[in-house]
Amino acid sequence: MASFSSIAAAALVLAGSSVLPAPAPTSTLVARANGDCSEAAEEVVAKTGGQLLSAQPSGDSCIITVLVQGNGQRPRKVTMKVPM
């Protein structure tokens, strides 16, 4: 019969083997879902030159939040409401 410590060790090995590597960072990530805001998000990112933080549907519009880098200043968070 296996001891508790050997069972616990086996469980840790199995748990560790199921960990997936983190995806490589990219400049823009857009998730597709019902009420797709990907086009609106791409438009705002292109217009501001910022980095996408979030894109959420809100009725017939999308609330897009981007982080815009300033010239030698702290980045600023910009939120826009864009028609879907």
Amount of helix: 25-40%
The pLDDT mean sits at: 75
- The number of helical elements comes to 2
Query: Tally of extended strands?
Result: 3
Structural class: alpha+beta
Shape: elongated
> In this structure, how is the largest beta sheet organized?
3 strands, antiparallel
- Looking at how many chains there are and whether they match, the oligomeric state comes to single chain
Strand neighbour order, sheet with most strands: 1-2-3
| Topology order in helix (H) and strand (E) letters | HHEEE
Distance between the termini: 62 Å
Strand fraction equals 25-35%
Based on CA atoms alone, the radius of gyration comes out at: 21 Å
**Which residues sit in consecutive blocks of at least 5 with pLDDT less than 50?**
11-18
Write the layout of secondary structure elements.
Layout: H1 4-17, H2 38-48, E1 51-58, E2 61-68, E3 76-83
Antiparallel strand pairs: 1-2, 2-3
